[in-house]
């Protein structure tokens, strides 16, 4: 893991930010196409009705919000703040996928990208920022990211309804 952190430390911040929407697309693809799909998975395991169409619309909104945040962070010069928030979001989401699969002892759509991409990306991002940001700001950003991940999970478990 330390070699991954060292790799990212020398990478330009904007290139690093670009990893988040790219990996999000991979995560969406796995959730949509892998196994029986996330919509069917939610219905069979939790009784949650989230149509495939609604799933894609919500994921599209999430991707647009992520892109808007990255563009604003670049334009207004707060890329480390956005990195900390995005790092916490993907780490939290990855851990939710992992815990859910451990709890059910079954694969859930999104698990592979969660374990192979998002948990390492989120962890590497947060660890590399720890010494580069004020501790209070870092913790605040990490809390915002975790809260966003929680809200996304609640929306998903409500069938995409707010």
Which structural category do the helix and sheet elements fall into? mainly alpha
Count of separate DSSP helical elements = 7
Number of structural units classed as domains: 1
* End-to-end Cα distance: 37 Å
Overall morphology: globular
| Mean residue pLDDT | 89
What fraction of the residues are assigned to beta strands by DSSP?
A: under 5%
Low-confidence blocks of residues: none
- Order of H and E elements: HHHHHHH
Helix content: over 70%
Largest sheet: none
Please provide the count of β strands: 0
* Radius of gyration over C-alpha positions, nearest whole angstrom: 16 Å
Task: Describe it.
The chain is mainly alpha-helical and 162 residues long. It has one domain (2-157). The protein is built from seven helices and no strands. The longest helix is centred in the middle third of the chain and has 26 residues, at 79-104. It is globular, with a radius of gyration of 16 Å. The model has no long low-confidence stretch (mean pLDDT 89).
SSE layout and pairings?
Layout: H1 2-9, H2 13-33, H3 38-46, H4 52-75, H5 79-104, H6 111-130, H7 135-157
Helix pairs in contact: 1-6, 2-4, 2-5, 2-6, 4-5, 5-6, 5-7
């Amino acid at each position: 893991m330390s070699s991954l952190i060292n790799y990212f430390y020398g990478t330009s911040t904007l290139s690093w930010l670009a990893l988040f929407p790219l990996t999000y697309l991979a995560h969406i693809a796995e959730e949509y196409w892998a196994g029986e799909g996330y919509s069917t998975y939610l219905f069979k395991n939790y009784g949650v009705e989230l149509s495939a169409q609604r799933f894609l619309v919500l994921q599209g909104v999430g991707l647009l919000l992520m892109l808007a945040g990255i563009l604003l962070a670049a334009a207004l010069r707060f890329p480390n703040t956005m990195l900390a928030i995005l790092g916490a979001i993907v780490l939290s989401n990855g851990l939710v996928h992992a815990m859910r699969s451990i709890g059910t002892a079954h694969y859930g759509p999104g698990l592979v990208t969660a374990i192979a991409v998002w948990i390492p990306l989120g962890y590497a991002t947060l660890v590399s920022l720890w010494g580069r940001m004020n501790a209070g700001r870092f913790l605040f950003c990490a809390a915002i990211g975790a809260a966003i991940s929680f809200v996304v999970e609640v929306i998903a478990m409500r069938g995409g309804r707010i």
